[in-house]
Structure to design on (153 residues):
């Protein structure tokens, strides 16, 4: 038996949803590998699953190992829907950097009146800090239907 033979180990590199790539390789014990996690647009590298924050980094293989790159979003999406089709339009929906202030305004269509947002706020216009994706519904009242029900009652 050759005593100089190095043991072969398996290295798995996972890159999660921000990259969707997994590298699987078999390498000799003591092999030093340079790895780099490159995120998709809208994401940033946070750390490796072992807590290491270097990117790129060198890994010396001494056993079967798995490393996963952890990414976080750099962008947040503001989505706004009307409570009724054609009840209004909006200023502000779109992409924002995390922590950025978004200006949001509901613009009622003719004969509609803005009532509130799905989070309970009645402010219109309003500013929001975009720390995550936010989806809101704007509730409007059809003033013609409201007037019709008052007059018929």
């Amino acid at each position: 038996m050759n005593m100089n033979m190095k043991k072969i180990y398996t290295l798995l590199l996972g890159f999660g949803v921000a990259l969707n790539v997994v590298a699987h390789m078999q390498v000799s014990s003591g092999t030093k590998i340079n790895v780099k996690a490159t995120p998709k647009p809208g994401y940033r590298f946070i750390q490796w699953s072992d807590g290491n924050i270097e990117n790129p980094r060198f890994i010396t293989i001494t056993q079967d190992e798995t490393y996963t790159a952890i990414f976080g979003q750099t962008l947040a999406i503001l989505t706004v829907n009307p409570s009724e089709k054609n009840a209004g339009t909006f200023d502000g929906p779109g992409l924002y950097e995390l922590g950025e202030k978004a200006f949001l305004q509901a613009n009622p269509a003719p004969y509609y009146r803005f009532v509130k947002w799905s989070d309970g706020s009645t402010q219109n216009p309003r500013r929001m800090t975009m720390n995550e994706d936010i989806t809101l519904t704007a509730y409007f009242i059809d003033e013609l239907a409201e007037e019709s029900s008052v007059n018929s009652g």
User: Anything to note?
Assistant: The first strand starts at residue 8 and ends at 14. The two ends are 99 Å apart (CA to CA).
